């Protein structure tokens, strides 16, 4: 069976996911057959051009005509269009893959997760946190789950970019509270919160995030719109920092900024446990640094580029490094396998996706869980006090 995919959004994320789908038959031959069926957007000329470049069969200017007509719906539009089309697709029984953050607000994220629950297990609903699919992150997760770092005490996550450091950098939808929900908190903080939950969130490690203390800051509160010769207000945060307390008593420190001069896309995670520590940086995504207390010789740099490392055998010989775009191929592989498995359990065989689970993760429930943490950080900033999560 060929899965017909409808995709809303044809800019940055549209390109990343279309590229991923195009790579699947070459590198993941056991992936389901996928047709880039219809590309959805508002501007017909731009859409026609993008559909040609990205390999789509057709275009549509209204998502409502598409969501119940395709086998899978990808929602890669700006945050403010995440909820309505995704919910409509799920109500029509169409699996949905939605970009992060799941929604601009906690209320909408709750409605989306409820729609996913109502749609049932046969209709996968995934939230596209692509950094879970970096081979070195999967490797780190295996070490942590095997207990090799012991009891977790500290988790540190920072995501640094600098594209707004220039006060003349133009206004965009990402800077508007109505369209984006929040600023760097939802855009970058969502990734860090999700990775932290993925890596140490299990009961045997640090467990759930129980309370947070957050601090948000907007450095430049209006920006130019060059085409219209005017300025518009910035109504979201430019930077955030947060302290976390986990169920097991571990401490977390998170931070992100669009004003971190010199940093383009620097997502770093550090974890310290009783038996050792690890360090990952997106700027060196083929490596994982691991320190073991028993050896006490500092950090060892492990090249996660061997054929038995997660996903690597599908690509190149050992040492032929992977990059950012590969994370999208991996998540598309897992998500589309889950869709195919859910629709045809006997043909997909085995009942398990390649990452060992029956259902795709990160799911809408994971998207909602991250959103709860983000909302608590915002609330803490507003109230200037620690906020507990239910
Ligand atoms: C913002 O600059 C951005 O593109 C995010 O929206 C992505 O989620 C992140 O992966 C890279 O940075």
From TrEMBL:
Residues 4-121 form the Gfo/Idh/MocA-like oxidoreductase N-terminal domain. Residues 341-363 are annotated as: Disordered. Keywords: Oxidoreductase. It comes from the Archaea. One of its GO terms (molecular function) is nucleotide binding. InterPro entries: Gfo/Idh/MocA-like_OxRdtase_N, Gfo/Idh/MocA_oxidrdct_glycsds, GFO_IDH_MocA-like_dom, NAD(P)-bd_dom_sf. Residues 137-279 form the GFO/IDH/MocA-like oxidoreductase domain. SUPFAM superfamilies: Glyceraldehyde-3-phosphate dehydrogenase-like, C-terminal domain (SSF55347), NAD(P)-binding Rossmann-fold domains (SSF51735). The keyword Metal-binding does not apply. This is Gfo/Idh/MocA family oxidoreductase.
